[in-house]
Amino acid sequence: MFPSDDPPSPGGSYRIVFEIVEVVEQEEADVEAIDALLRAMYGALVATDVLVLLGAARLADRFLVSQAVAQLLASRLAYVPADAITDDVLALVFDAYSALLATPLPLELIDKCRVFLRTAFRNVPDVVTQPALLERFLALPHAAVVAWAKSDSLQVHSANEVVYLLSAWVRAQETAGCPCSAEQLELLVDTMRLAACGPSYLQMIVPALDWFKSGLGRLGAFALSRELKKAGLLYTRPFGVPNAWWADTPREKLASCEAVMEFKVNAEKLEKLEMLDGKNCTIFDSVFVNGFWVTPFVKCSASKTAPGELTLGCFAQVDVAKMTKATPWTEHSAVAFTCSKQVGKAAEMGPSTFFVTGSKSWGYADTLGVSAASVAALVAPHLEGGQLKGKATFANVDLLCRRV
In the beta sheet, which residues pair with residue 281? Predict the structure, then answer.
C-alpha cells in the first residue's frame, strides 16, 4: 500500500505497526489506546477520552514513535476539560512511568490533576473517617500523595492529621506488597510540617514512626535526637533540615477540633459490669480527634469512698497501635462525659472532665457522682427507656504526654 522505504506519515513506519500488532496478540493491551496511537501516526486522531489519550502517549514513548506524534497527543491532553479528571486519570498522570516520558505530559493537564487532588481530599479528617474516601486516598500513587501533602489548601485541625494520613498511606503500600523505597520515604518526610504538629506528636508519635526514621536519610541523627523528642525543633533549626518542617504558610484551619459522640447502653448490659475488680466495661466506637483515635468506655468500679458499693464512670483510651508500635503513653486531653438524665449530685456536678490516658494508667471519672450497692440501683434514676444515654465530648488539648 505504501512504499517500503518511506513511512506513510511523520510518525508511522512498518516496524512500529508490526511491533504494535505483536503487543495486541501477546499482551492484554488497551486496544482503544493502540487505535488512538495508530490514528495519530497516520494523521487521523479522533480520540478525546483522557484515559485513551494517556494510554496512547505511553505507547508512543514505548515504541519510540516520532516526537511529532507524541507532541500531537500531548496537545490533545492539554485541552482535556477539568471535569474529565478522575481517580484513574490521577493514577496515570502521577505514576512513575509518566514521569519518565520522553515527551512530558502537558503542564495544563498536571495542574488540573493537582486541583482535582486538592479538592477531592481537602478535608483531612473526612478522608480519615469516611471509608470510601480513605480507600481512594490509599490507592493514590506516591507522586500524588507528595503533591497533596505539599498543598496549603488542606483543611486540618493541626498537622497531626496529615502525619496520620501519610502513615496510613505508607502502611497500605506495605500491606499491598509494594513498600516505599528510601527515596520515596525521604520525599514524604520532606513534606511534613512538624512545627505545626502538637507537642505530643513531636515527642511520642513522630520519632517512633518506622517510615519516618527510614526516610530521614542524612537527617537520621537529628530526628532521633533529644531535640525532636522534646519538641526542640520548634526552637532550633539545624542546617539541612527540610524547610517544610518550619513552614510558615498556614493551612486552612477547621472551625473546631471538638468531636461529640452520643452513646446508649441497655440496662441489661450495664448489669454485666458489676465486677468489683473493675475490669469489666462496655466499649463504644472510636473517635478521630486531631490525629488520635480515642475510644470511650463505661466501667463499673468499687467506690473509693463507700466500701462495698459501686460507682459508674467513663474513661477513654488513645489507640497508638494505628500509628506506631511505640510503648503505651499517656495523652492529656480533656474529655467531658454527660448523662442525658442527670439527677441529684450528678446534676449539680455537671459534665465530668478528666484525662484521656494510655493502656496502663486509666483516667476515671465518676460520671454519676453517686455510689450504690449494685449497678441496677446505681443507674435506675438515670435510665431513659431502659437505657443509660449520654455523650462524650472530645476536645483538642494537646499539651503533654509521657510514657507509662
Answer: 299
The span from the CA of 68 to the CA of 79, in Å, is 17
* Rounded distance between C-alpha atoms, residue 202 and residue 228, angstroms: 6
The full DSSP string for 41-54 is HTT------HHHHH
Amino acid of residue 298: V
How far is C-alpha 342 from the chain's CA centre?
Answer: 38
Q: Residue 5's CB: how many other CB atoms inside 10 A?
A: 5
> Phi-psi category of 311—alpha, beta or left, where left has phi over 0 and alpha has psi -120 to 50?
beta
What average pLDDT score do residues 156-170 get? 91
In SS3 terms, 310-346 reads as EEEEEEEEECCCCCCCCCCEEECCEEEEEECCCCHHH
What is the C-alpha separation between 261 and 265, in angstroms, rounded? 13
- Terminal alpha carbon distance of the chain: 81
> At residue 387, what is the residue type?
Q
Give the H/E segment covering residue 220: helix 220-223
Tell me the one-letter amino acid at 24: V
pTM of the model: 0.77
Q: What is the pLDDT of residue 24?
A: 61
Beta-bridge mates of residue 260: 393
Per-residue pLDDT reduced to its tens digit, 52-83: 999 889 888 888 888 888 898 999 999 999 99
pLDDT at 245: 63
Higher pLDDT, 289 or 351: 289
User: In residues, how long is the chain?
Assistant: 404
